C-alpha cells in the first residue's frame, strides 16, 4: 500500500465507497492516498524474479490474481500457478495466460495436482497455509522453495480493535521451520521483519478487512458499524490508525 493523506469526507461516503470496491486479486493500488505499508528489505518480487530467470520449471502456489508472478521479467518455459478463489482464478488466467503461464484452479488443501519432482522452483507469496509435505513432494531433488509468508501477529492492532486484545498464535517462523524440516526440506534462509502500516481513513480499514478476510472472519460493515464509527472519530481526532504487519522470508531446499 502506498500513498498519503486523503481528503475529508463523511463517514457514510468513506464506508460506502470501500464497501463497494472490488476485492479480487492482490492489486493494492486502491489504497493509494488512503494507507501506507512498509516493504520488507529483501524485495521479494525482485528476488523471486532472479530465481525464476534460471529455473527449468516453476510453480507459484496461491497466486492470487497473478500480479506478483506477472511482474517478474522472465519465467521458465514450464510455469504453472494455482489459485482457489474463482474470481482470482479468472483474473490470474487473463493476466498470466498471455505470458505463457498455465493457471490451475485448485483448492488450498493438499494434494497439489502435479506429479512428484516436477518443479525445480516452488514459490508462494502469503500462502494461507504452507503444506510442506506437498511442496517437498513436487520439488525435484535440489529444488528450492522460495516464499514470503505472513509472519506472527501480523496487523494484530487491527484484529484487536475489532475482536478485542488477546494473545494471538500462529505463523511462528520456528514452528514453520520445524514443519518444513519434518517434511524433509533443508532451511536455507529464514528472516522476519515487522513493518509499519498507517490507515488514513476508515474506508481504508473497511477495504483491508474485506480483502484480507482472515483478519476479522465474517467482517461486514453492518456487523461492525458502531466500532467503525468510533474508529472514524479517532482517525479524525488523532490522525492515522497505526498497525504493524509481519513478514517472513522463507527459503528451503529439497536435498539432492
Automatic annotation (TrEMBL):
UniProt xrefs under InterPro entries: 23S_rRNA_MeTrnsfrase_RlmA, Methyltransf_11, SAM-dependent_MTases_sf
SUPFAM superfamilies associated with the record: S-adenosyl-L-methionine-dependent methyltransferases
Top-level division of the source organism's lineage: Bacteria
Single GO molecular function: S-adenosylmethionine-dependent methyltransferase activity
Limits of the Methyltransferase type domain: 59-146
Protein name per the record: Methyltransferase type 11 domain-containing protein
Provenance organism: Streptomyces smaragdinus
Amino acid at each position: 500500500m502506498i500513498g498519503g493523506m486523503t481528503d475529508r469526507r463523511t463517514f457514510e461516503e468513506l464506508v460506502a465507497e470501500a464497501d463497494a470496491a472490488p476485492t479480487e486479486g492482490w492489486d493494492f493500488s486502491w489504497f493509494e492516498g488512503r494507507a501506507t505499508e512498509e516493504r520488507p528489505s529483501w524485495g521479494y518480487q525482485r528476488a523471486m524474479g532472479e530465481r525464476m530467470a534460471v529455473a527449468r520449471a516453476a510453480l507459484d502456489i496461491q497466486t492470487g490474481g497473478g500480479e506478483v508472478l506477472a511482474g517478474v521479467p522472465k519465467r521458465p518455459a514450464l510455469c504453472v500457478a494455482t489459485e482457489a478463489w474463482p474470481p482470482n482464478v479468472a483474473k490470474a488466467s487473463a493476466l498470466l495466460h498471455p505470458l505463457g503461464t498455465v493457471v490451475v484452479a485448485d483448492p488450498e488443501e493438499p494434494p497439489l495436482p502435479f506429479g512428484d519432482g516436477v518443479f525445480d522452483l516452488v514459490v508462494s507469496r502469503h500462502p494461507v497455509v504452507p503444506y510442506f509435505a506437498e511442496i517437498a513432494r513436487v520439488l525435484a531433488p535440489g529444488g528450492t522453495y522460495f516464499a514470503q509468508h505472513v509472519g506472527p501477529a501480523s496487523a494484530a492492532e487491527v484484529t484487536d480493535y475489532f475482536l478485542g486484545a488477546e494473545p494471538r498464535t500462529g505463523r511462528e517462523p520456528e514452528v514453520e521451520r520445524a514443519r518444513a524440516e519434518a517434511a524433509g526440506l533443508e532451511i536455507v534462509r529464514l528472516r522476519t521483519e515487522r513493518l509499519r502500516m498507517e490507515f488514513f481513513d476508515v474506508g481504508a480499514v473497511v477495504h483491508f478487512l474485506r480483502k484480507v478476510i482472515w483478519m476479522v472472519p465474517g467482517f461486514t460493515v453492518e456487523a461492525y458499524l458502531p466500532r467503525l464509527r468510533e474508529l472514524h472519530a479517532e482517525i479524525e481526532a488523532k490522525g492515522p490508525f497505526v498497525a504493524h504487519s509481519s513478514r517472513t522470508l522463507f527459503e528451503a531446499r529439497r536435498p539432492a
